[in-house]
User: Fold these one by one.
Assistant:
Number 1:
Amino acid sequence: MPSLPTKSFQTVVASIVTGIQGRATVLLNFSQGSALRAIAEGFAAVFMWFESLVLQLLLAIRLSTSTGNDVDTFVADFMPVVPGTNTPRLTAQPATGVAQFARLTAGPSSPVVLVGSTVQTADGLRTFTVYADLTAPTYNPLLNGYVMAAGLASVNVPVIDTQPGTGGNINSGQLTVMTTPLTGIDTVTNINQFINGIDIESDAALKKRFSDWIMGLSRGDLYGTTAAIEGSELKIQWAIKENYNLDGSWRQGFYLIVVDDGSGVPPQSFLDAAMSAADAVRPLGIELAVFPPTLLQATVAMTLTIDPTYDRNTVISQVAAIVSQNIDGLGLGNDLTYTMLCGWPYTVPGVIAASNVTINGKIGDFASITTKQPTQDGQTTFVYATVKCASAVVS
């Protein structure tokens, strides 16, 4: 924004007083409460109003300094708007995750968790709904639900928050109340935390996406693909690889995109949206495929030495929560290294030492989990996976 020679209210009043007195042949009364002082301050107030209007206008006419609705109206003159709105700003996204429905005794019956069933958090503030995942092995389209096979005590079912936004990002174990009666089902919980709920697109994110969109206009290259993918979903993690299949074999004239919504198991609708966006800028004669990430589970264990002045159970639960949250928050393409994991416990007050740290039963650098794999020719690597916490056993 241009730098303007703005003036304060007192400076404007002083300038008015000086101008009037300089043209008068007698000394005038500009003391507080006088009529001339009131007139000068009235003019100054109008001047300040005009000055504020100019400043607001200068902020609004440049995207870099615009905020809120001014950003929407600026970019809407160029970018396609979100259907049903008058702005390209992406709307809030509900959290999704996996709920585990269980029965107290595994029996010969096969209870069904119906699509549309609802569950709530213990405080009743968030409600989640079971949705259909046609690719899930336990989903039965005829029953429109997920079948808990005979002899099994639980079944994992995908659920989605009924309200969009970050309020649906809940910790593990918070989803405990079944609000829809289900025959043969006794309990419900979420083993992992939900982390992919997100609020409406921020000004900064929309400005960046506008820049990417401008750079990618009419281009079937990385700029065009970046703009297309970023515009498909509000919270999308993605990685691209050219000329290789997902198994690492060479395939000229082909590129793949691995996408995730933060959960590690994005629904098919999410994958379809990413595919449609990328396909819109795909050059003719070039093949493209979109894949979900490979989900790598991390089972973590460690032993803590705790300051005796701290409550041991509290410290243990805090460390377990931080380890679980940090692993689940790594995101697509970010490795879980052993040294990284060893440092997290020390962020909790009361921890003196962390020992016997293992990842999937291993120690040292060999325990680290990488989200990248080499191509079959050994020439390069590419992102294919995301890491999530299966369990964090802290003692």
Number 2:
Amino acid sequence: MLMMLALTPRIWLAVIIVVAWLVIRRLRTRQPGEPGSRDVAKDPDLFTEMQQHFDQIQDAREQAKHWSRDEVGLAVEVYLFKIPHSDDDQDLGSQLAQQPEVTATLVRDTLRNRDMQTRLQKRERDETPWVRACKLLDNAPSADNVAFVRRVLDDPSEDVRMEAWHWLAKIGSDDVIDDLIRGISQPPDDSTRGWILIGLQWADDDNRLTDHGKRGLFEPLLDNLSGYDTREVPTFLLRWNRNRAMQCFADRGLLDPAHDEFGYVAQAMANVGLALPREQLLELLQVGAESYTTSTFRAFGTMLGTLRDPADEGTLLRFLGQGGDVAEAAAAGLLSYHQIDDWSEQLQARRNDWTAEERRIDAMRWVENEVCNGGWTQYFFNSAGADWQDALVGFDEVGDTHRAELLREATAKFPTEPAADRDRRMQQLAELEADHDNAFEDLDSRYYQQRIDIDVILTRYMLAHRESLTTAWRTR
């Protein structure tokens, strides 16, 4: 149970802040919907208010780093038991994350205390304090709480049940393996298996699963390899025991393209650097992508590139010009063939020392990211819009006339070219949107039509500048 707190003046101040924040939050929920990106573009003052609010949140998080143990305890009490739903106080959850060790200790003390069990399971707006406790311990589940988790595996609320299965899998200790096997064996239309697999991903990444646990889970996972929720299972099995997994895949016919789960197996093989036979890959790529998802077809290309047979570079280059899924697969294959499939990480590592080519690669991909997310208004509103000239040069160099044309038309709508300075560009955008409602609506619609996949464009660009890029990038 949380300790009784001495209400010092400092703690009273914390109480007042929390209560005031809850009142403001409640008032906000009664107001109309939040402003959209176009509303903010039309009125830069809205953005200033949002930025000020964000700065206040950041200041509060910084202050939370210096809370005393009693203050953390008060905040935990409020977060677990004084609010109806975690969505009502995400900021407080973020503040508690600034002192993860103290927060985790207090939350675990609460979970272990039998006198608190009724309070923890009190449901309001279909969420219990137990679920909020899990959120606070999201990255640090403890085997000490297994007994309590088991008690809520059959809770009437699906949210609570799924959180329990998820948390049990994240714990990943040997004593929960039998429970997880039971959950994995639920009917395919039950969502339990999917939540367990998400939790196992965490446990596996954090090395919480022992060799004994992996051996125990291997066959049950293989026996229940069906449906979208299990798409990551082949990757688990290959990581745990590559030889055994490949033999099991072969014995069960999972390497046969006609098998329903073949696509997931192919993607998993590509993820760990394995490949199907070269002739089979060439045949799969030549037949076409109608029978496979884009991700699976890209896996075929990646695997072919992994083999690095000189005879295949020309084939992949021909595929790159065909468009559609075939071109995307070829792009993945060529990046793998030339060992530059980690290009995004390479850019990040060199962010402060980019060449002109690297600036253009980054600028081109951000045009795609922003326009696809919120149209040209969002692109010019956000910081990516400062790099429109680099993007335009890149699109021209690589021959992407569709994007280059639309980018020129978009910039031509401004009375003067879009400023590099964001504040100035936001003001330009506000004036443009005030004079022409939905100024970019037609350009947005045209952007989404008949465009070549951005990965294909970027691959073409990187291949054209490969020598200058790979000279700057780390070699593997």
Number 3:
Amino acid sequence: MNDLTECPHCGSDYGYHVICTMKGKGACQYNFDHSEGDNTELHDSLMYFEQKTMYCSECLKKIGMKN
């Protein structure tokens, strides 16, 4: 499916997504004034497991399988 340039259903060229499951724990950082701190590393310790089904990010219809 690497030759797709748009969704075959709605014609959108916005892109596609695959569903992924994440496993692990992270720590949310806060400043002492209770504002959100630097959380750029929040996801670094998570493990990601991607499914292979591709979905249009615009119309959400199934468009194929990821290689």
Number 4:
Amino acid sequence: MPLQDNWFSRLMLVFAGVLGAGGIVAAAAASHPGNERILGAIGLIALTHATTALAFGLMSATGRLLRIGAIAIAAGACLFSGALGVQQVVVTTLLPMLAPAGAMVVVAGWIVIAIAGVTGRR
């Protein structure tokens, strides 16, 4: 089945690629002594949400709720993983609330997806 050529599919595939690449880098870095716990968490969050973004991109979700939820999940995961990654590399907390804000956006996205499922509205 060919990929739908629309803005949503392309956006989700970009998120999937960024999260997937970042997740692999974080997982590889976690195998070396240092901040294994944080880097492992970054890898886990990034890679699991990369597959979510990929699935939404390939299915070209229709409906406002599914698209809002998917974008929130992917953007929040990028924000969360990116903020923690920068903190590990730069060894500073530039914006201390950036990672928690990203996590809250991810949770909100998953809640929107659940609402879409419960209400049957997409």
